[in-house]
Amino acid sequence: MLRHPSYKGLRAGVDARDVEVDGRPLKLTNLDKVMYPQVGFTKAAVLDYYARIAPTLLPHLRGRPMTLKRYPDGVEGPHFYDKHCAGRPDWLPTAPMWSDRKGEDITFCRIEDTASLIWTVNHGNLEMHPLLSVVPDLDTPTTLAFDLDPGEPAGILDAAEIALLLRDMLAGVGLQTWAKTSGSRGVQVYAPLNSPTSFGAAKAFARDVAEVMAARLPDRVVARMDKKLRTGKVLLDWSQNDRHKSTVAAYSLRAKLARPTVSLPLPWQALEQASRPDDLLISPQDALDRVEQHGDCFAPVLVCVQHLPGS
Description:
Elements: E1 16-21, E2 24-29, E3 34-36, E4 41-42, H1 43-57, E5 66-70, E6 80-82, E7 94-99, E8 104-109, H2 114-122, E9 125-130, E10 143-150, H3 156-171, E11 178-181, E12 187-192, H4 199-216, E13 221-222, E14 234-237, E15 253-254, E16 261-262, E17 265-266, H5 268-273, H6 284-294, H7 300-303
Parallel strand pairs: 13-14
Antiparallel strand pairs: 1-2, 3-4, 5-6, 5-9, 7-8, 10-12, 10-14, 11-12, 11-17, 15-16
Helix pairs in contact: 1-2, 1-6
């Protein structure tokens, strides 16, 4: 964590500050920049959140190639996806991954410690997007991921209801699952795959699951990506199970709404009991409070050993 000064001090109207994190000197800049203008949430507050959540967040990032989603002028300005770790210091590790489409390595960042995390945040990285694999075996997914994305007028409560049905369906074939909010309108469901499988097999299985649910619940679920088909339904997005795709990390901030929210792991009971959207739109302080009280609800995803049915 920070040694001098404390992150608490970063809220006090300063523009730049030299700090030491994990023994690494960092210059934190533009601390007064407002990243979420409608609520006045500054870059200092973003850094403060990530410094405090780091011990819980980092186990879900270590070893994974990271796509940085950078918002240099805050959530209302332009943003871009940085897959080449542009401008990184020499000490920040990378994860080269060959791309057949580009004909070259993509040099992803790796976020192994708090210093690496804070460096990316200081360079405008509001959202953490790890790939589903861990170095050195970048061809093997460690989890099966479903992104439940509702189409208007359906909302996050509809996504939560479908997530519960998905949990039951996967339990029926022997897969344990854990849920988190997307930090926006949706819910994400993870089934750990810490027994080796391929991305091809994982993606095919996820697609089969989505299509079966869409066939059983045609008025509520859609498995095709066409936005015109999504009205009033929940897209069960299976396409994230791909070697080059990243998914927002547990405990990451999101830049989807006017106010900062967190992609927060929740016990299934919380989804069952949710009665209004704000029950599932979690603020940074609420996320920190919940972690302090309950610990990391997503920790089992890192250690649960299970495999795809039939593999």
